[in-house]
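User: Predict the complex.
Assistant: Input components as received:
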Amino acid sequence: MKKKRPSLKDIAEVLNVSTTTVSFVLNGKGEEKKISKELIAKVEAYLKEINYKPNLVARSLRTGSTRVLVFMVEDISNHFFSKVGRLIEDISYKNDYRVLFCSTENDLKRTQDLIHLFHERQVDGFIIVPPLGIEDDIKHLMEHETPVILFDRKIPSLKTDYVVINNFEGAKTSTKHLIDSGYKNIAYITVDLDQGQMQDREAGYRAAIEEAGLNEITLKLPFNTTAVTESREKLKNFIKEHSNIDAIFFATNYLSQSGLKGIHQIDPNLINKLGIISFDDSGFFEMYSPTISAFAQPIEEMAEQLMRIMLKKLKEKDTKPEYLTLKGTLVARESSQPKTTKL
Amino acid sequence: MKKKRPSLKDIAEVLNVSTTTVSFVLNGKGEEKKISKELIAKVEAYLKEINYKPNLVARSLRTGSTRVLVFMVEDISNHFFSKVGRLIEDISYKNDYRVLFCSTENDLKRTQDLIHLFHERQVDGFIIVPPLGIEDDIKHLMEHETPVILFDRKIPSLKTDYVVINNFEGAKTSTKHLIDSGYKNIAYITVDLDQGQMQDREAGYRAAIEEAGLNEITLKLPFNTTAVTESREKLKNFIKEHSNIDAIFFATNYLSQSGLKGIHQIDPNLINKLGIISFDDSGFFEMYSPTISAFAQPIEEMAEQLMRIMLKKLKEKDTKPEYLTLKGTLVARESSQPKTTKL
DNA sequence: TGCTATTGCTGAATCGATTTAGTGTGAAAC
DNA sequence: GTTTCACACTAAATCGATTCAGCAATAGCA
């Protein structure tokens, strides 16, 4: 049979006090509200005895706050996002906030649904990796004074805080690293999304290639999570057609992962002849054989900055937005070492 | 400046009707409640015009239902769990439920916190991969008539529904597959958890080895997410000490992933000499070089069954619990093929 | 003694929806 | 001519917390 959870009213009746008193004690405001020590002790003892848990839905309705934040990224199972998410969760916990995670899959409709769902449930703040076309929905949140921080990508038309990395520098550094390892024909594999961060990475690649007087070799694959196999076939054909390629720079870690599979399918030994580097690190990369080099984003710093800004915004409304562009670091592993000895 | 969200009351005042009427129309009960077609049309038009979204916190307080389910697994970034989660989300969506995902990390305290957090927020149902020691908290949920379904593992003392696979058969089949491929010295790598499913897998391995008249070679690593490196060192030493091993059966996919890294560290070419199979598939396995064989759980079927049972329990209370043990399938890839040609 | 201040507590409004129990009107039934 | 009933709608209670406004009793002070 169903147990009814006791309400403040039930407790007040048992103890012969008012719900107000119980509520004050429950929220630790007993002293402040001049409740006598004896009564505080009595109420606290009873609360503990029955292991009372307040109904948070009722509390939220009254206070207008849920103490819940939402972390909305492209794909929460992606190493980069899940690491940042985990750190954010820890910081939130210490500040008595809970975090809900969800994946947008870069799908506008899905993201809009999620934003509205959570907004209707009165969550207190959003950290979002914004897909293209989401401006209006985010503006809508901002009009209701719900804190929103953009992450990984910025949207120029939105005057709200963001935390991103310097994609241009990162891509340039990575490309240079391949060049320094002796590679001459470096292909750049990216997705055909008009997102700012992707354009910056491409520009970074181009800059390094031009400075070194090499030739650009670029392939843009369709961004479409359902057609992964098709994408990989295109990549395989591209590699076969450009037999002079001696290195590949993948613009994101999921491209790399699919790409490595394609390379393996062409020839299990091909991976040992190519220089490889990926933008964004992945747990997968240090387990692969050979281990894969990557340009890693500063995960801890990003999480700390995101939460610092979020907590600030939750405390005081109408703060000036902060625009943060952080630096990443190159993680050189086996895949980007000179291969001349093996050839 | 802050926009206040309109409430039903505001709308009722503007339209000069009662909040009751607006609520009926909002919930599509207009006809049933004998509201005239004209008035329904007028209210609907206005609701659409201002793009009214009800306050779901208030609705939940009144109805006692949030239309939210929780999917609580060991690690949501694990391929197996994230796949099942995604399918569950789709089915839920079609039935007007939302799903929240979270990771227990097999940590009792963390899991308890999460269960209480969501219970206090009145979520409608739980699908849980239960860590050891969680019985009482789950019993507590059941006493409050909150539907709970166990997944991946069962807890004998709990009379609630579960969906698991036949771990014994799966492990036996996998081991036999290695034997059939000609391997003679098959090591079994597992974790030192007293969980039923792990014991069943080990028993399956043992049964196949005994039937074939081979020798058991078993290594139990400590389950400890923070000491991955240490674990891997133990594994490496184990492999070095047992130089006669020609195949390895990993009891879970995360063990395999760490194990593959260890094998690579010992010698990049070692992987091509060993037969490898893993319990639980992973996206990583078909990308690895060589591709890794695995015993895969029936992901679609599990998601469908879980949601079928959940929806049934949400509709009618006091249903008889269902105990489902499904079958998995062997996915033979490169890593478990005979290696005799290469030696 | 009379006045204000403080202490210690409570009644009732409130958040924004849902839902029960009606209310007033006009037409049909007897 | 009264009763009944369907229709079209509404007032008010309700969910379970928080919180404002206020009350009675005692203390402090002149």
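Residues 17-21, 24, 33-36, 39, 58, 60-64 of chain A lie near DNA strand C (CB under 10 Å from a C1').
Let me know if you want any component modeled separately.
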